[in-house]
Amino acid sequence: MDRKILKGGEYLITETGCEDVFTPEDFTDEQRQIGETTEQFVANEIAPHIEEIDGGNFDLVVEGMAKAGELGLLMIDAPEEYGGLELDKATSMLVGEKIAPAGSFSVAYAAHTGIGTLPLVYYGTAEQKEKYLEKIITGEWCAAYCLTEPGSGSDALGAQATATLSEDGKHYILNGTKQFITNGGFARLYTVFAKIDKEHFTAFLVERDFEGLVVGAEEKKLGIKGSSTTQIILDNCKVPVENVLGEIGKGHKIAFNVLNVGRFKLGAGVTGAAKMALVEAIRYANERKQFGQPISSFGAIQEKIADLTADIFASESLIYRLAGLLDTKLATLDKSIDNYYEEYQKGIEEYAPECAIAKVFCSEVLARTVDEVVQIHGGYGYVAEYPAERFYRDERINRIFEGTNEVNRMLIPGMILRKAMKGELPLQAEAMKAFESLMTPSFEELDESDPFAAEKQLLANLKTLFLILSGAGVQKYMNKLVDEQEILMAAADLAIQIFAIESALLRAEKISPAVTERKRELLRAAVKVFCFNAAEIAGSAAKRGAYYIEEGDTLTMILSGVRRFSKYDASGLLQAKRALAAAAIEDEKYLF
């Protein structure tokens, strides 16, 4: 089916039809089979060893990676020309989601297949791919990505590692320390960033056995204890000149473009982890008895299960909608052109705002999920014998990985506003229309024949609210708005909730006609529960933004708009929560 191709950020000013979104229900038989293969791999090869892996047995991780390679799970994003499968992003995200129950192993897997492999795929020469790619995609070698340094985390370009050309011109001599390197302890190939002559930020392919590369001690971490995290020390490390990756001085393109995919993949992984954690909580709630009955019969527990189910539905809907956007865009490219991967990267970069949204929203859904899973377990959730304790510890890093959620929040409106300034999005014209609506009373009546009419009205109103606030912010601060971090964070919260609401709503609307009446009612319940919570978050963010930007009569006018445009009729909310909880408790699974 041909889908309309939206630009990145365009969702804020355009009405999308449900037929234009990809959903998990659109998976082909082949995709489902790959998902099942991944599930079986985790159940048979990893799950029995999770405690040993968490105890630091990295030999089991390396063995697991080799077995994943045998099943083709490491080659999904690699080109066919070099033995890869070159499958679409929806399949790649599905595997990322299904690998999540593997605990710490999933971190090694994600780092290897994402930031460990993609720099070589996207920017490597034919000779470099010929030399290294087969080793990586078969699991013979594990890969790592070395960007962060002790003094530069979010400020990646502030790296101090240096590279100097040797006198004979055959090697670059690298010096510096890389920090928090996932897979650092057992990787055989590292993508390392350093500044040539202390100026030109450049990427290098560095083998473990190169002279001058030293692997530091394992970090003692709060969670993901079964993943290797070390320093990589470059002590006059000799790297052949032919191992420069991409162009000299263009390392930032590799660093940032690969992180877009990394953020997206993290969103898929944490969604899979949230599903697993929820199921564990439901099972426990059904088994645990207090006052003579299972705690799953209590309304306080049921509300938690309902809220988490709705959150995860939105998270899953968002991830696969974004996969569809990327796949639709990338499918328009001609693979035969010489600069295919350059155009490919532009296609991914187009949706950089949505990739950041996926990272923030989905990681925070997992955070809420594991917190409530521990709460449902009560005291036992604090005991290491129960998996809830590990879920809680392992989750925390996801809001730091791939750029902290704060950095990503600031990127979201920043990237959208830059698109507007370049003329790629007519944001200013739409903002002016939105301002006019503040002075125009609305007499629209809901279409009673549409079960999602209230949610569609909320969505349209929140988009208007975003435009009002972004327009006010630009008018007051102009180009200096990028320095107003508190305002950017508030705008991001609004943009994130809009994308999540729309993704959940469009999925439910699309699949409702083809499902059973029970499933249809559950979809409506999930959308209602999620929209109620999201409207509260969006309304609070908009109010915060209004106080940050305006004062006097203009503030009063905008606050009136916030109340009007964040209003949502959630009639039947309690019944919706009880229906969701009852079904999840009865089925003992994530419902969608």
From TrEMBL:
Catalytic activity from the UniProt record: a 2,3-saturated acyl-CoA + A = a 2,3-dehydroacyl-CoA + AH2
Keyword match Flavoprotein: yes
Acyl-CoA dehydrogenase-like C-terminal domain location: 461-564
InterPro entries in UniProt: Acyl-CoA-dh-like_C, Acyl-CoA_DH_CS, Acyl-CoA_Oxase/DH_mid-dom, Acyl-CoA_Oxase/DH_mid-dom_sf, AcylCo_DH-like_C, AcylCo_DH/oxidase_C, AcylCoA_DH/ox_N, AcylCoA_DH/ox_N_sf
Swiss-Prot/TrEMBL cofactor(s): FAD
Residue ranges annotated for the Acyl-CoA oxidase/dehydrogenase middle domain, each copy included: 144-237
Pfam families: Acyl-CoA-dh_C (PF21263), Acyl-CoA_dh_1 (PF00441), Acyl-CoA_dh_M (PF02770), Acyl-CoA_dh_N (PF02771)
Keywords: FAD, Flavoprotein, Oxidoreductase
Domain of life assignment: Bacteria
Family: Belongs to the acyl-CoA dehydrogenase family.
Subunit structure: Homotetramer.
PANTHER family in alphabetical order: ACYL-COA DEHYDROGENASE, ISOVALERYL-COA DEHYDROGENASE, MITOCHONDRIAL-RELATED
The protein's name: Acyl-CoA dehydrogenase
Source organism per UniProt: Geothermobacter hydrogeniphilus
